[in-house]
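Because showing beats explaining, we think one record worth quoting, sequence and backbone structure tokens together, and here it is:
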Amino acid sequence: MDRNTITTLAERPALSDVLWEMPDGRPEFMRHDLVANAYTGSIAEEFPEYVLVATDADGALAARGLCVPFRMDHPKRGVLPDRGWDEVVVWAFADRRHGAVPDLVSAIEIAVRPDLGGLGLSGRMLGAMRANARAHGFTEVVAPVRPSAEHHEPHASMPEYAFRVREEDGLPHDAWLRVHVRAGAVIEKVASASMTISATPAQWREWTGLPFDEAGDVVVPGALAAVRCDPERDNAVYVEPNVWVRHRL
């Protein structure tokens, strides 16, 4: 029996106060993407009708799902960006600022409380995102997906990993991509530079507990690619690839 109630934040604005307090299991370094830090908190304020919230039987926040509407039919756009997550968020806020009428919705995040992982709530949140976009008159939803298990293969090529399938059923090898495809999505392309986190080696040491004292690639738990460390220039850069999927509604 599904004990979770899923609504939009616009319908339950009181949950704004606890939206970001919910544990989400992200590795610490993922909290330091400058674009995410600049815009994510404002999604709830600017687009509450595109933010999904799930509560458990006790009324506590169980999951959140963020979407943003944006305009793809634009002279400088037309294709899903290689700078996936970072760029589509910037597009959405630029469109809101300039009054552009959106023609597409992008999912941005589905976060489930860690104690509720593995119970299918993320899939139900995805279904609610699709239904919500349809209710707002959209015919497609896209998403720069962060594959759930690719961090176990940080040196794997994302183009190979994204399109890797299981022999038994032809569905994606990755479990989170598989949820999207089962919901009706198609894998469209790799967003090769979806998020970029640049910091000093000292900051990376603080976030990860790893030395970051030699030049070269550093494998960080939870990362989808190695972090390139350059101590001589006092810099270490992580460029995360994601996978664009498209849901036709």
In short: The chain has a mean pLDDT of 96.
